[in-house]
Amino acid sequence: MEDVEFDDILDDWFIESLKTYKDLHVYQLEHPTQVIEWTSEKTVCVAGYSLSKNEILELRLPLKLFADENKGLCAERDFKVAHGGFTDGPVRRLRHIPGTRCVVTNDGLSSDLQVWDLGGDDSDVIRRTGSIAGRRNVSERGSRIAARLSSPPEVLHGAQSSDIQLTELTSGRTLYKLETDSTDPLSFLQFVSDTVFLAGCCNGSVYVTDTRTSAAPQLSPPPASSGDSVLWWADASVGPHPSSCRVVRLSSSGQAVVSDLRSLGGGAVCQAQVDVQERCCNLDHVRVSWAPTLDDCISVSGFSGVVQIYNTCGWSMELQERQPLFQHRGHVVSSQQTDDSTPVFTTAHIWHPERPRTLLSAASDGSVHVWDWVDPEQSAAGSPIPRT
Amino acid sequence: MPEINVTPLGAGQDVGRSCILVSIGGKNIMLDCGMHMGYNDDRRFPDFSYITQNGRLTDFLDCVIISHFHLDHCGALPYMSEMVGYDGPIYMTHPTKAICPILLEDFRKITVDKKGETNFFTSQMIKDCMKKVVPLNLHQTVQVDDELEIKAYYAGHVLGAAMVHIKVGSESVVYTVSVNKYAKSHISAWIDKCRPDILISESTYATTIRDSKRCRERDFLKKVHETIERGGKVLIPVFALGRAQELCILLETFWERMNLKAPIYFSTGLTEKANHYYKLFITWTNQKIRKTFVQRNMFEFKHIKAFDRSYADNPGPMVVFATPGMLHAGQSLQIFKKWAGNEKNMVIMPGYCVQGTIGHKILNGQRKLEMEGRATLDVKLQVEYMSFSAHADAKGIMQLIRMAEPRNMLLVHGEAVKMEFLKGKIEQEFSIDCYMPANGETATVTTNPSVPVDISLNLLKREMALGGPLPDPKKPRTMHGTLIMKENSLKLVSSEQALKELGLNEHQLRFTCRVQLQDPHSDPDTLHRIYTHLKSVLKGYTIQHLPDGTVMVESIVIKVSSSAEDTNAKVLLLSWSYQDEDLGSFLSTLLKKGLPSGLC
C-alpha cells in the first residue's frame, strides 16, 4: 500500500513517465538483489545478499518486451521464475559462464567461489555443483569474477591484484596467475578479448594483462585526482577490436575519466564531474557501465536511488560538471521501503545487449525495474546513434 | 490414520479448468466446476468418470461449492448438474449466483449459435441448474448436514469471489483461488482459530513475479493518450462487471489531470447493468468503487457521458466503453465495424475472449474478418490486449501460507517439474508438506485430528495423587479410566463413576495362588525372610510387613502357613486383585524359585 504523501510524487513522475519512457515495468522481489546477470537472451539471474540463507532465481523476462511486431497482442508483462535455488550465505557477485548453464558466485566475505548449475527443462531447481578456492582465505571485499566464451569453460577471479587467477571450471586447475606483489583490492575485472583482461583496483590503477604471455602485466596509474581515500570503479566497452576498446573510470567523488585501452597510462580522452547525489554510507553497490549499442553512453548507479545515463560525446579534457542525459528515478518515487532512516539506493543495473535503451535496475528495497527510456535530445546532432 | 483425499479432475496436465474433488471425514465435496476454454470437444469438461462410471452424481457428492463466476470455474456446472446429473446443493455467494447465469447464457449463445455446436447445455438447463443453488452469506456457517459445515470468506479476486472453509469434525480444508490485499490482511484474524489441515490454492501463476498495477495502468493511459493525440478513436469493449468501473475512474482522473477535452462515452446498457449489480452487492465491492459510488452516483463523471449510437460517426478523437466484452454482438461490435478500417483508431481488449468471438480472432492477429452476408472487414486499427486480472503469484502464495498457517499445502494446476523450487521453498520456510497432484491424481494427506475429551475432576485428582513426575505432554503416562460418549461429548471418568452412571454393580476379581516353599524356619520367620527378600528385589514398590501376619505388596497379600505333611515345607498363599495381575504373576514366579540362602 503506497503512503498517502507519496501518492502525489508518484502521480507526477507517473504522468511524466508516459512521455519519458517507451516501456516501464516495475517488479517487487521478496528480497533485494545486488546482482543482475544475463544468462541467455531472455533470462537474467538475481540473488539475495542477506547474511543467512538466500535464493538464486533465474527469471525469464516478460514476453511483451520481446514481441516487437505484434507487441500489442501480447499481454504478458510478468517475470517468470524459470529456475530457483537456495544458498547458505549472501551472493554479492554472480557471473554467468558463457556457453554453459553454469553461474559462479562469491559471498563477499571470502575469496572462494561457488559453482551452480542453473538446470534445464527437466527441473526448475538450481543446484550447487562445486566450489573453487581463491588464493586468499579472508577478504574484505570478496572476489571479482569475469568470464568469456571458452572451451572448456574457465573463470577469472580474484579479490586483489596479487590473487588473480584463471581457473578451469570443471577440473579446478589453475591455468594462469597474475604475477605481481602489490595487493591492491579489486573493484573491476573484465575480459576485453579471449586472452586480454583488465583488472581495475579500488585505488584507480588498472592492470592490462594478456594470458598468453608470461611478461609482466601493464600497470596504468590512477587518474590524476584528489585524495587518497578516493575509490574507483571501472568498465570497459567491448568493441570489435580490442584496440578500439575504451575504459571509463569513476571515482567516489564523482570524477568520470574516459581513456582508450591503448593509451590507458597516458592522457585520458575526456573526463567530467558527474552529478553524484546524496552519498549513502556504503558504496559497495556502485556500478558504471558502457551502453552496449549506444555510442559514447555510460550509466552510473549506486550512489543513491537513481540510475543516471550520460553522453560522453562532447566531454572535454577539463573537469567540468556535466548533467545526465537521462535519470531513472523510479526506485525513489515508488520505494516500498518502510524504514525511512536509510533511503533506498540502487544495488545493480545492466543494459539489454541489443535493445538500445533498455535497462534493468535493482534497488535495496527489493524492487527491480525494466525500462526503455526516450532520448530527450530529439536532434540528430546530440542524440547517440545505436550501432546496429 | 485419518486422511483427506484431494483429486483435481480433468485430463492430462493442462490448466484452464478448475474442478477439485475433496474427500474429508467421509464426505465428498466438489470445489468449482469449470470449463476448459481451449477445447471444442469433451475435453473441455472435467472428467466426472472418476466419481462414478455411469449414472448420476447425486449419491456420490455431498455438495458442490463454486468460488467465483469466471467460466473456468463454473462453466461446466449446467453440464454437470443437468447432463451428467446432480440434484444436491450447489453453494455460491449471492453475487456469484446473480452473475453466473448471465455469463453461462452468453457463453452458450456464442458456442451454440455462432459455432453451431450440438453437445452443449441449453438455456433451460442453465435455469434448472441455478434452481439447485443455495446462496451463501459471508461469515455464515452453513450446515450441509449433521457433520459437514462450510463457511465463505471475502476473497476479493472478482465481485463475489469467496474463500471457502470446509469442516467435518475436527478436520478442515480451506480453498481459495486468489486473494487480494484486503482479504489477506484479515485471513490471520479468522483462520487462526483452527489451522486448516490443508490449504488448497491454484498455482498456475505461482512461478510469476507480477508487474505492478501502476505500470499496467500506465500502459493503458499511454495507449489511449497516443491515440487521442493523433486524432484516433479508442474502443474499449467491456464486461459490465469487470474492470470497467476502475478503468473509468482512472481515465477520469487522467483527463482531469492533463486537462484533456476529447469526449469519453459509456454505453447505457453498461451503466444500467453495472448500477444494478453494484447497488445489490455494495458490500462486496472494493474501496475505490465504493468511494466513487458513495461520493456520487456511479456514472456521474465530469468527463464521461452516456453514449448514443450516432456519436460513433462523429469526427475527431473519442473513447468509448461498450458491451459486450468479447465483441461478439451488440453495441461494441457495431462500433468496431465502423472504426476498424482506420489505422489511427485503437481497440483495447481488457480481458480474455472466448473462441468464436471477434475479440478472440483479432487477439490472434487476424486482420481480415468474415462478417454476416459474406462481407469481409479489414482490420486496420491498432489492437491492444491488456490484462488487468489478478492472480496469485509466487509472493502471494507465500503470504497466504504465512497468514493461514495450514498444516499442509496443496497446489493444483501447475506442472510438477516446474514447481520443484516452489515446493522446496514452502517446505523449507514453513516445515509443512506441499502436495502437487496432477489432474486425475489423488493426493492423500494424513491428518492428526485431535479429539477433545473432558476428564472428571475426581479422576484427575486421583492421577495427580499417584505421585511421580508431573504430566508431561512429551511423555504419555498410562492411566485407567472409562470413556463415556454421550450425545456429542466425550468424557473420561473413573471406573467407579462410570459404574455409578451406568447403574451397574461393581464386581471384584481376586486371584489366589499357593506356592510351596522349602524352609525350616518358623512361620513368622519365613514371613520375615520373604519380606526382606521382596524388599531387596522390588525396589520402588510399597512393601509392608503387617502386624496381622501378612506381607503386602501393593494390593497383593502374602500369608505363610506350615504344610501339614512336611514340617520343613511352607505353603505361601498369594492373593491379588485382577488390577495387579502382572505383579501377582511375577511374585508367584519369583517365590516359586525359593528364598536365597543368605537372608537373615
TrEMBL record, chain A:
GO biological process, one term: cytoplasmic microtubule organization
GO cellular component terms, semicolon-separated: cytosol; spindle pole
InterPro entries linked to this entry: WD40/YVTN_repeat-like_dom_sf, WD40_repeat_dom_sf, WD40_rpt, Wdr73
Classification via SMART domains: WD40
PANTHER family xrefs: WD REPEAT-CONTAINING PROTEIN 73
Protein's recorded name: WD repeat domain 73
Organism: Amphiprion percula
UniProtKB/TrEMBL annotation, chain B:
Listed transmembrane segments: none
GO biological process, one term: snRNA processing
UniProt keyword terms in alphabetical order: Cytoplasm, Hydrolase, Metal-binding, Nucleus, Zinc
Family matches, as SMART domains: Beta-Casp (SM01027), Lactamase_B (SM00849)
Residue ranges of every copy of the Beta-Casp domain listed in the record: 244-362
InterPro entries: Beta_Casp (IPR022712), INTS11-like_MBL-fold (IPR041897), IntS11_C (IPR048662), MBL (IPR050698), Metallo-B-lactamas (IPR001279), RibonucZ/Hydroxyglut_hydro (IPR036866), RMMBL (IPR011108)
GO cellular component, one term: cytoplasm
GO-annotated molecular function: hydrolase activity; metal ion binding; RNA endonuclease activity
Cofactor names: Zn(2+)
Subcellular location: Cytoplasm; Nucleus
Protein name: Integrator complex subunit 11
